[in-house]
Amino acid sequence: MKIYVAGHRGMVGSAIVRAIETESKHEWIGESRSGLDLTNRFKVFEYLENNKPDAVIIAAAKVGGIVANQTYPVDFLSENLQIQANLLDGAHAAGVENLVFLGSSCIYPKYADQPIKESSLLTGELEPTNEPYALAKIAGLKLVSAYRRQFGHSWISLMPTNLYGPGDNYDPENSHVIPGMFRRFCEAKQHEKGSVTLWGSGSPLREFLHVDDLASATLYCLENYNGEIPLNVGSGEETSIRGLAETIKEIVGFDGAIFWDKSKPDGTPRKLLDTSQLQGLGWNPTISLEKGLKNTFEQLPFGCEV
Predict the structure, then answer these.
(1) Residue 180: pLDDT above 80?
(2) Rounded to an integer, what distance in angstroms lies between the CA atom of residue 81 and that of residue 76?
(3) Tens of pLDDT, residues 128-154
(4) 108 is catalytic
(5) 216 alpha-carbon distance from chain centroid
(6) Catalytic residue of the set 108, 133, 147, 220
């Protein structure tokens, strides 16, 4: 298949491109943000019509951590709604039969039963700290489902858990937890600080998936799944934020103390996905958290030496 990877320069998209080039018989096409603004509906329709891909993988999105979501709620809701609608409507207009929409585990209720099953969607209130992004992703899932029902397209959705790995965003203000910790510990080490202060209590439990495992799962599902149920994609490993911080501290080689600012939000207390449906199809992750974090450290886009 000729696969259009939307967002091929981002962390997820670039991992999917690597997987296509090394693990599959397919070829891929893509366009940079400067060449194709995905919020421009006319340009998106034109691109898909002219290139006629056999499949589309939607890895493009405006993403960020708690601070970014709280600071720019309009951006996270509006831009993601535009990107998704343009790509899905454009793919339909161009006759694209195969499509994978990548959602996010933040679509689930804050207090969903653990591990979270796909059926938990829309059964409770969302986590307020990332609600704008979550609402946009839910809309994308529902639009994929609507296209399946109304037009019979073989389009599917996947919900990955928290991701990390090469190509992540290490911005001091807008990064997610793992890149944010790497940045803070490295800077503290370089400046010989005696401590690092992190947000919250450190008690929330989280599941993390290396982005290369997500890329593998995406291609596997593109080739082997055609169901209406959006599938969870996770590692099955769960760790506390405090435990994660200690692991990253050790990998970086920072000798100082860790303090926790409990005035800052923790977010969802626990989030572990039930991935039994995907495992039943024959796919399993291969990169452990410890191995993945060491790999991430080796590929940091900035120095971490004193």
Answers:
(1) yes
(2) 8
(3) 888 999 999 999 999 999 999 999 999
(4) no
(5) 14
(6) 133
